Amino acid sequence: MSEQTAIGILGGMGPQAGIDLASKIVAQTKVKRDQDHIPTILYSDPLVPDRTHFLLGDSTVNPGNEMAKGLLNLERSGAKVAGIACNTAHSALIFDHTLSQLKEAHSSLEVLHLIDVTVEGIRARHPSAKRIGILGTKGTYHFRLYDDRLEAAGLLPLRPDTFEHLEEAIYHSDSGIKACSSPVSDVARQLVFRSADQVIQQGAEVVILGCTELPIAVPEATYKGIPLIDPGLFMARALIQAVAPDRLMPLSVA
Question: Which domain holds residue 175?
C-alpha cells in the first residue's frame, strides 16, 4: 500500500452510521502499532436528502447529487476507494445517478456497492444459509435492494409481515434511532427485535440488518441463535481488501 492510498467513507446518513463504519475498518485491520492502520477519511454530510423520501416520491431531489459532491471531496482529500454508509442510497435510482455525476467530473474514485459486498459476505461466512431475512426501510423493500441480488445468488429473501415496526424504530421523532442514536432507546431496540421475530418465524437462517442504523441499535452478533448480518462489517472488509489485503483480519465461517 502506498502512502497516498486512503479509504473514503461517505457518511451522515445518519451521522452515527459513518462513524460506525470507520470503527469497523479499525477493528478489521491487522495491526501491531498505530502506523499499521489504513489512512481513512470520513466525510459526514447530513445534508444529503432523505433517500427513502426520494424513492417513494415524497421528494423530487435526487440524493445522488449531494452524495457525488461528498465523494468528490473524499477523492480530492486522497481517497482511492470509498464506501457509502447507507443501504437505501444503493438503490439504482440513487447509486447509478451518483456514479454518473462522478463520471461527468472525470473521477477515478472506486465506489463499492454495499448490497453486493453484503450478499458476497453472506455466501462466504454462512455458506449453508438459504433463507435470508431482510430488515430495512420502505425504500429498501419497495426497490428490492436485497431481494433481487439474493435471488440472483440462489437465496430466498424473507420480509417482515409489516414494515411499521421498523419505520418507527428508525424514524420516530423521539425514540427512533435517527433521533436518539447514542444510546439507542430500548423502545427502538424492541421494535427491531419484533421485526426480526417475524422473519425468524418464516424460517430465516440469517437476518440482514439492512439499514445502517439497525446495527447501531442491535450490535449483537446473534438473536435467538440466528446470526445477524451487519452490512457495514462486510463493507469495512471490502474496503480493506481493496487497498491493503494483507492487513485484513481472517473471516470466521459459520
Answer: 115-231
